[in-house]
Amino acid sequence: MYKEYLIFSAGFTVIHIIAYMLAGMITYPFVHKGHPIYDHYLRKEEEEEWSKTMKLLLPTKIASGVLLSLVFFPVLSFLNDQSIQLNLTFIFGVLFIVGGLAS
């Protein structure tokens, strides 16, 4: 029984990290980099703290993915009985709501 939860958490965490990195790679050059609105609070590559931030990025995203996967543990048996489309819609909806509340 615990194996199912571990597999789900590991897969969810990997997908969470990939989605986060892809979204960042797409939006950073076009939206954030060099835009005066973001200059006040975003780290720049030339700053010393940029490398510190990048070193902590992967561990914090792993922790974030594991914690977010815990949200789905109570409904995991329900999700296993449903189609992939319903699973993705449900997970996207929950993450959209949680992400909206967190920001």
Strand-helix topology:
Blueprint: H1 2-32, H2 48-70, H3 76-80, H4 84-102
Helix pairs in contact: 1-2
* Strand/helix succession: HHHH
Cα(first) to Cα(last) distance is: 34 Å
Overall 3D shape:
elongated
Task: Kindly state the number of beta strands.
Answer: 0
* Radius of gyration, CA atoms, in whole angstroms: 17 Å
Structure description:
76% of the residues lie in helices and 0% in strands. The chain is mostly helical and 103 residues long. The protein folds into 2 domains: 1-70, no CATH class; 73-103, no CATH class. The protein is elongated. The termini are far apart.
Spell out the key features of this protein.
2 domains, elongated, 103 residues, 4 helices, mainly alpha
Task: Describe this structure in a few short sentences.
With 103 residues, the chain is mainly alpha-helical. The chain has four helices and no strands.
